[in-house]
Amino acid sequence: MCKRSRLIWWFSLLGPGILFLGTGEARADFLPDRASLNALLGARAVSEPFETYAVESPRDPDILNTATLSSATVVNGEQGPGLVKPGIVFSLDLSASPTPSLQWNPSGYFGLSTKTLAGRGILLTITFTAPTTAFGVSVKTYVQFTDTVIAVIYAADGVTELSRRNLSLVGTGDVFLGYSNPDAGIGRVTLTSTTRTFTPVIDDLSFGALPKAPLVLAVGRDAANSTASVTWQSAPATRYRVQWKAALEDSAAWQDIGLDFNGTGGALSWTDDGSRTAPFPAATKRFYRVAIP
Predict the structure, then answer these.
(1) 178-206: pLDDT as tens digits
(2) Which fold, 29-208?
């Protein structure tokens, strides 16, 4: 079974010379948990656990004296660059606080079990500078505190709002915020505290991009030889898997043909002669999809 596959295209061949073609679109939506994010991105995920920075005191956070943090940032002339992974930028709204500054919390600070990032100000923005179609982050606050945080997700242009959600934070308990937008991508996420003068605490950020859906170039059936063929445009370093089923309306799972294809940047093709599926009957109805496992 393709755990990270998504329906790209489907085909039905109904008798000689009759072709129906359609698309199965991946839906932009919130992800329910980190397991769903991991299953979606797999090895493509970039993870930021916020453990690189050396916090001076085990009891107090280090004030970074900057409202922006990226992989290029040098903090207080002492640490950096490389404090966070490339492809992300963390920033505070300069208009929301007279002295905004990010802070790195040590493990054990106000009940936190790991190093985390937060800010003096109410609005924290995570900007994805690398192509991103899915992300997930743990959001929390400090022990004995509560907060309601407004999370807003924006498309790759950084302007178009995709969705928003209120997060109810109670102490250091993790609230997972995850989102996937396979077609249009994700540009930034804002987290705004509605009850505090400091931002929510973030930890364990993961993000990444799925390869774009392949462009199907041709599908056809050779009735004389009882075969069908599927041809699609591939991308380099991307693996493809052809799957099939006899009818879309049945509850049976999509079946693998038992053969994967490595993308070359050119067209790939597979011919169904029945040896990896089932022999074609006189009147055939068969659906195919090209998935990225």
Answers:
(1) 999 987 899 999 999 999 999 999 999 99
(2) Jelly Rolls (2.60.120)
